[in-house]
UniProtKB/TrEMBL annotation:
Taxonomic lineage from the root: Eukaryota, Viridiplantae, Streptophyta, Embryophyta, Tracheophyta
Source organism of the structure: Rhynchospora tenuis
A Pfam family matched in the record: BPS1
One example of a Gene Ontology biological process annotation: shoot system development
Name of the protein this chain belongs to: Uncharacterized protein
InterPro entries per the UniProt record, alphabetical: BPS1_pln
Length: 244
């Protein structure tokens, strides 16, 4: 009787998709670790991370790679990534939900600015600060969760998944750090300016500041929603491999 064994065929580090993802990750590491990270760069970075997940998903959907990862020797890698993906999705979901809460508060504050309700605006600014700080703490708690590392010889796609996970974790941490930085800046922070204008009764003249913040929060929320869907797709592809 002839015994047919499945061969392990996983993407090498020289595979075009792997090289493309590695190039993006190299750029992302520099961006996320930069002290000059702004909201605009943050939005571009979220999109770039999403592109990496798309590239990884393309690799996961290749029949030869599915065959290799479904082999017993690589199933531990798949199981680990499925476990870690839940943590990352929870973090992204929490960040997205917090941005949603902040967005609706900003809209309420915008209405108060239009009506010229000074006391409500003052308390609203303080509450906004509290919301951002709470959101930042929520992410920090989840960042401190230790991720299990793969032992032994890890294939290229495993390294990509691990590095992308680390980048995504750092990115989610930076989202509220940037909003917090804008909030607490004494010279360039938008909210301190709003408070000053309220005291001078020049609220209406600076309505654009409020709208700028709303635009940023909404853009971040949309960006994280897209990133969440791309991470979900990668998880689905990993689950499909488990069914082979």
């Amino acid at each position: 009787m002839v015994c047919h064994n499945r061969s392990i065929s996983l993407p090498a580090s020289s595979h075009p998709f792997v090289l493309k993802a590695e190039e993006e990750l190299h750029k992302l590491k520099a961006q996320v670790g930069s002290r000059s990270l702004t909201c605009e760069i943050m939005l571009d970075t979220i999109k770039a991370v999403g592109h990496v997940y798309e590239c990884i998903n393309d690799l996961l959907c290749m029949p030869s790679n599915q065959n290799g990862l479904s082999h017993m020797q690589q199933r531990r890698l798949v199981d680990l990534e499925l476990e870690e993906s839940i943590k990352l999705l929870d973090m992204c979901s929490t960040s997205r939900d917090n941005l949603n809460v902040i967005k609706y508060h900003v809209r309420d504050l915008e209405s108060a600015i239009r009506r010229g309700e000074s006391e409500i605006i003052k308390s609203g600014v303080l509450f906004y600060n509290q919301l951002v700080k709470k959101a930042n703490k929520d992410v920090k708690k989840q960042v401190t969760r230790k991720s299990e590392a793969m032992a032994g010889d890890v294939p290229a796609i495993g390294l990509l998944l691990s590095e992308t996970r680390d980048i995504t974790t750092s990115l989610l941490h930076c989202v509220f750090s940037i909003l917090l930085k804008q909030t607490e800046s004494e010279k360039t922070g938008m909210w301190p300016l709003v408070s000053g204008l309220v005291q001078k009764r020049r609220i209406v003249c600076k309505k654009e500041i409020q709208e700028d913040i709303l635009d940023v929060v909404e853009a971040l929320e949309i960006g994280l929603e897209s990133l969440f869907r791309q991470m979900i797709q990668c998880r689905v592809s990993l689950l499909n491999i488990c069914c082979l």
